[in-house]
Amino acid sequence: MQMKSLLPGRYGDYQQFEAICKLRAGFNNVFMSSTDGPASLRSVGGDRAKHFLNVCPMYSSWFDHFAAGCVRRMGQEVPQDHAISMHELMRVFEGEWNRATSTPDKLHNASLGAYCVMCIGAYCVICFCSSFQGPEVFLTDLFSLGKYLETPHHIDDCKYVIIPLLGSMNNEHGECYHLTPLCSVTKSGLDV
Q1: Average pLDDT in the 25-35 region?
Q2: Residue 131 near residue 192, CB atoms below 8 Å
Q3: pLDDT at residue 78, rounded to an integer
Q4: Same domain, 103 and 169
Q5: Is the domain of 64 the same as that of 143?
Q6: CA angle 150-154-159, nearest 5°?
Q7: Number of domains into which the chain is organized
Q8: Sorting pLDDT into bands at 50, 70 and 90, what band is 119?
């Protein structure tokens, strides 16, 4: 583990503790699959919780102190995921839409923008603006979505879009559409 810690890492000049700690788990797996490992294994506990006692050197008192010292000396740098704004994601989809030359390409780009739940760490427009949970965005019916988009909908001066969901949700049996109105343009400028 000391030799591996001196190698260059993915995010810095040296390995992170999580990377060198994998050697401990690997060695324990090799030890437990050898002839000495299962013979030394003892279990304590009932049906639900069990604790296993073994003589693997990776779980000795000395090695626990060594691992704690490694963490204190090396530190743990965790690079955060980089978020992308919904506006930037919409600019990407808009660019793809403008570059598409044929109707099937435009349909493909529109479907990708509407159905893609997770893309570059951000929810896409229907899931983002409607707060659908889990796979509910995949219940959106494209035929009815096109039908509802042809007819403009207004309440007072507010224009809105109807998102039709077909399937079992909210105690419905999937025989009728569950219609969700969304404003056409959000206050921040997202064009639903």
Answers
A1: 84
A2: no
A3: 67
A4: yes
A5: no
A6: 80
A7: 2
A8: very low
Does an H or E element contain 37, and which?
Answer: helix 36-40
Q: How confident is the model at residue 82 (pLDDT cuts 50, 70, 90)?
A: low
CB atoms < 10 A from the CB of 104, how many?
Answer: 9
Taking the C-alpha atoms of residue 132 and residue 43, their distance in angstroms, rounded to an integer, is 45
Taking Cα atoms as reference points, which of 132, 181, 142 lies closest to residue 161? 181
Q: Has residue 160 been placed in a domain?
A: yes
Residues 114 and 144 in one domain: yes
Say which residue, 99 or 186, is predicted with more confidence: 99
The last residue of a domain, from among 74, 99, 133: 74
Q: How many CA atoms lie within 13 A of 116 on its CB side?
A: 18
Phi and psi torsions of 7, nearest 5°: -75, 155
Q: Of 12, 39, 74, which residue is a domain's last? A: 74
Tell whether the model's pLDDT for residue 120 goes beyond 50: no
Q: Which domain holds residue 120?
A: 86-183
Predicted structure pTM score? 0.41
**Residue range 164-188: average pLDDT?**
76
The whole-angstrom separation of Cα 13 and Cα 160 is 53
